[in-house]
């Protein structure tokens, strides 16, 4: 009797075949989770497992702002096959990539060593040869995620432009990895090189402007914390969309009649007047707050930039 494939494995096999036949070439977009749910009639969680599996096999990769695309093919060997003598560094990197893919698809709460081992086809205990525990794994995942968006070697000319660029890159990373903001913590910060690099960049941008070291450090960490704090809702929103199949925009649209009743009640006149001329989005709120933060910092600069 032929075993029945799980839906996600069957869909992954179909997409894998299209990639191997050359119907989808490196750089081509593959169906998104929403497109998979619509085409194959499966749940969002199933669609996420399809892309996570193809990612673990090295067939696809996530590109921030673009979506999931076909990965460049290795020069030798089949996709997803490890060399027999794979060293510890390569094995750890493979574990981290799989953990990131799983957290991206299903959230950090879904990441357990047992689940990760199952995704990789190894025992959970074998993972402990490369990472001590889940906490260390999350640190490595966060460092890997922050390393995806490199700050340019030649920065923009002005301090404000430099800080805006750093904030934009951080936001893009949080968007690509909704779990990442929740993994960060300013009271017990993750000491990851790729994260500290953003603090160092901000400190360098503020050097020579008449600000003392304490003010510069507070400004740099405040900026980092602002973007992270704004991104903290991304994972709950992603989880809600995944479980309900309803996007945040669709949810807000469904609340229009209730909101209209509150506005029309006359109990909130200032809110009603302001709402008529405003259009809020995560990006608009981020930009408004960042502009206000940098405007305030500008008033403390005593030395014009050279």
Describe the structure.
This protein is mainly alpha-helical and 306 residues long. The protein folds into 2 domains: 12-73 and 87-146, Arc Repressor Mutant, subunit A (Orthogonal Bundle); 147-306, Tetracycline Repressor, domain 2 (Orthogonal Bundle), CATH 1.10.357.10. 60% of the residues lie in helices and 3% in strands. The chain contains 16 helices and 2 strands. The protein has helices at residues 7-20, 33-40, 44-56, 88-106, 113-120, 124-127, 134-146, 159-176, 180-183, 193-205, 213-231, 234-244, 248-254, 256-264, 269-275, 282-298, and strands at residues 60-63, 67-70. The longest helix is centred in the first third of the chain and has 19 residues, at 88-106. The radius of gyration is 23 Å and the shape is globular.
| CATH superfamily grouping of the largest domain | Tetracycline Repressor, domain 2
Q: What shape does the CA trace take?
A: globular
- Tell me the major beta sheet: 2 strands, antiparallel
Strand order within the widest beta sheet: 1-2
Radius of gyration: 23 Å
Low-pLDDT runs: 75-85
Beta-strand content = under 5%
Q: What is the annotated CATH architecture of the largest domain?
A: Orthogonal Bundle
What is the top-level CATH class of the largest domain?
Mainly Alpha
* Count of helix runs: 16
**Distance between termini?**
77 Å
Structural class: mainly alpha
- Strand tally is 2
Q: Roughly what percent helix?
A: 55-70%
Helix and strand pattern: HHHEEHHHHHHHHHHHHH
Averaged pLDDT, please?
Answer: 85
CATH topological fold name of the largest domain: Tetracycline Repressor, domain 2
Structurally, the number of domains stands at: 2
């Amino acid at each position: 009797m032929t075993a029945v494939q799980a839906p996600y494995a069957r869909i992954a096999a179909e997409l894998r075949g299209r990639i191997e036949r050359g119907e989808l070439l490196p750089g081509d977009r593959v169906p998104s989770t929403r497109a998979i749910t619509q085409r194959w009639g499966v749940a969002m969680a199933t669609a996420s497992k399809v892309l996570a599996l193809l990612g673990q096999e090295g067939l696809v990769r996530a590109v921030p702002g673009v979506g999931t695309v076909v990965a460049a093919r290795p020069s030798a060997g089949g996709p997803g096959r490890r060399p027999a003598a794979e060293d510890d560094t390569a094995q750890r990197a493979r574990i981290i990539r799989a953990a990131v893919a799983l957290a991206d698809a299903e959230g950090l709460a879904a990441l357990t060593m047992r689940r990760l081992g199952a995704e990789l086809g190894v025992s959970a205990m074998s993972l402990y040869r490369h990472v001590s525990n889940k906490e260390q794994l999350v640190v490595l995942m966060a460092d890997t995620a922050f390393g995806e968006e490199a700050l340019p070697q030649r920065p923009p000319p002005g301090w404000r432009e430099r800080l805006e660029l750093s904030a934009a890159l951080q936001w893009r990373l949080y968007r690509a990895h909704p779990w990442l903001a929740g993994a960060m913590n300013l009271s017990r910060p993750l000491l990851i090189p790729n994260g500290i690099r953003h603090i160092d960049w901000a400190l360098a941008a503020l050097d020579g402007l008449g600000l003392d070291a304490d003010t510069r450090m507070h400004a740099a960490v405040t900026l980092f914390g602002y973007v992270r704090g704004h991104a903290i809702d991304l994972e709950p929103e992603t989880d809600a969309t995944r479980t309900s199949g309803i996007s945040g925009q669709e949810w807000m649209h469904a609340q229009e009649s209730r909101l209209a009743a509150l506005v029309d009640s006359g109990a909130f006149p200032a809110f009603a007047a302001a709402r008529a001329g405003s259009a809020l989005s995560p990006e608009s709120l981020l930009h408004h707050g960042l502009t206000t933060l940098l405007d305030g910092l500008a008033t403390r600069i005593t030395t014009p930039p050279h």
